[in-house]
Structures are given as C-alpha cells and as structure tokens.
UniProtKB/TrEMBL annotation:
<dbReference type="InterPro" id="IPR013022">
    <property type="entry name" value="Xyl_isomerase-like_TIM-brl"/>
</dbReference>
<feature type="domain" description="Xylose isomerase-like TIM barrel">
    <location>
        <begin position="93"/>
        <end position="340"/>
    </location>
</feature>
<dbReference type="InterPro" id="IPR036237">
    <property type="entry name" value="Xyl_isomerase-like_sf"/>
</dbReference>
<protein>
    <recommendedName>
        <fullName>Xylose isomerase-like TIM barrel domain-containing protein</fullName>
    </recommendedName>
</protein>
<dbReference type="InterPro" id="IPR006311">
    <property type="entry name" value="TAT_signal"/>
</dbReference>
<dbReference type="InterPro" id="IPR050312">
    <property type="entry name" value="IolE/XylAMocC-like"/>
</dbReference>
<dbReference type="Pfam" id="PF01261">
    <property type="entry name" value="AP_endonuc_2"/>
</dbReference>
Amino acid sequence: MMFRHPQADAPVEGHELGRKLGLSRRQLLAATTGMAAAAAVAASTLKPGRAAAAEGVPLIRDSKRGIILFTVRDAISRNPLTSDLPSGFREVFKALSDIGYERVEFAGYTQNANAEGGANLGTVAGAELLRKWLDDNGLRAEGNHGFIPASWPLTQADLDRFKAALEISNILGMDHMGTGSDPTSSNYKADWDVAAAKWNALGEIARSSGYVKLYTHNHDAAYNFLLDSGPLDEQGRPTRSSGVRKLEYFLGITDPKFVNLEMDIFWAHVAQYKFTTYTAPDGSTQTNVFNPLALVQAQEGRYPLFHAKDGASNTSTANGYDMVPFGTGAIDYTGFFRGLTSGHHYPMYEQDNAPGNATTAPNQSLEYAKISYDNMAALRA
C-alpha cells in the first residue's frame, strides 16, 4: 500500500465542525462570530458572487468552486524578483483564496525557480510544502493533470513512476488524479479496447494506493464517432461507424469503480458543433447531434470533476467557439448544472488563453479568475 501523508485527511482548522453542520469555512466563520457581527461583515466585505447568494440557491456551492492552475500558469511561473504581482504557488494560492476559490486542480508541480521552494515541487518534500500552503489558505487539491503511462503492458519504470505520482497525490490529499489527454487518439475500436484494459488496471492500482480515483480529461476528438464496422481498408481497419462515439464506447467497457471522467464542457460543445454525422455500415450518412449533458446524466457518478470553460460563439472558426472567461460566453451553464441530480461534482474553471501580455496585461489571468469565480457563484437553481 502506498504511503498516505498523516496530514492528508486532516481538516483545515475549523473545518470539521463546519462539515458536520454542512457549512463552508466562510459560513462557519459567520456563524461563530455572532449574527449581528456576521451581518455587518457581510454588508462590507462580501464579493459580488457571494452577495448574490441570498437571491437563490447556488447551482455550484462555494465549497465546490475550483480552478485548474493551468489557467494561471503565467503567475505561477512569474519571477518574484522582477514583479510585485503574485508569483509562484504560495502567492497564487493566497490570491485564489482571496477571490473565493476553495478547490484547485494542478497541472504539474513546477514554478519559477526563484519562487519559495524552488522550481520543482513534484517530490515528497515539495508536496509537503504545497500541502502546507494549501492548508494555510483554506484550499483543497482535487486533482492533477500528471503522468499516465503510455506503454501497455506496463514497464517496471512506468509502474514505479505512476506509483510515485500517486504518492504525491496522497500527500496533497487529492481524491482524484488524471491526465489532460484522451485514453487514445485513435479512431479504431481495437485501440480503444487496449486503452480500456490499461485504464482499468491503472484505476485499480490507484484505488488500492489510498483514496485516489483515476480520471481522464477529454477534448473534442474523443466525442467523434468510433470506426467499428463497414468495409476494411488496406490495413484491415474498419472504415465506417455503428454510430457510437469513442468515449461512449470507452465508458461502456471500463469499470466504474476504477475509471472516471473529467468532461471539459467547452470541448464537449465543440464536439457538438463539429461531429454531427457519420457513415453507417451500409454507406448512408446518418445525423446524430451530440448532447454533452445527456452523456453525463447516463452515468453521473463517473464525473467527479468538470472543466468549466466558456466559449463565445464564432462559426468562422473550426471549433465554433472562442474561449472567454466563465459566464461571458454562449454555453448554457445554468441549464447544464440544473440538469444534474448530484451536487458532488467539482467544476474547475479553465481558460487556456487567460494569461495576458506580460507588459500590457500582466495580471490578466488572475483578473479573469475573479470574473469567472463571481459568475460561477451567480449561477442559480
């Protein structure tokens, strides 16, 4: 069994009572300082998203609102010796906590070499330091886009590296560990069969190492149609589809106990825009418009995490959308989250193009993080 850090399940100070009462850390603070004092504080300090809480039930509770650190990678990699803006993990954690975020998802463990702790925190000692900074700022790590072995069957070197990644996840207190890549980039059923066997095995290793659930993060290609039928090409591969989408097939042949998904809702809507027809076994063209919400609803328990990435409609581009801060685009997030029956998902705000020009907009990614947090908080049932 993998080592689990003794602090991995330790609550941030004051959290245990809050969890028992169903309160977030901020709600607990208000309750324990008296109703009159809490009202006075709320009137002067609540951010726009929090102020709107009285207007209805939030679709995403404050304890579930998260961000993947890839969105603010420019701040994490910023040199603290040349900038007064938040730089490195520790300062960025504080900035995100001040905005209101309570969950973060890592995209690796490297930062500027001049930031506290040095360049690489992807070690046991580095993870312990990261865990302290998370706890200091009332943050919880929910996942990481890290190492998933490409080889199958596993080499001993890949297995050792995978177990080391699980060790880091357990020290950080993560319930989930994943990757930013599809299980396979192939269009063919045989390759997805191999990918499913690998992920079932890796997922079982992950669960046996502690409490880590393995997840795959997907872009639009995984929602294209699987080539699984029809005439074979010169290499003996099928050329037509039965109409099942690649990720749907993967879900059907993997074990729900060991394999989970993180839907990037933006890329799922890109797939809805791009992949509307397929060639059936008889050669006819069939139309099938993808419904991201319906896919989630079919096995909602397998989606512990989402990437909450918004897009402005732009049909002049191949994807049909341009990435924008959450809540400023065309994707119907109110309808999406209203369609879920569980409140146990963690939507992680992501925006690939959030970092701004280092000269003209050096703090843009954190400014977008603030806009996006407020818009996540404003979603109402």
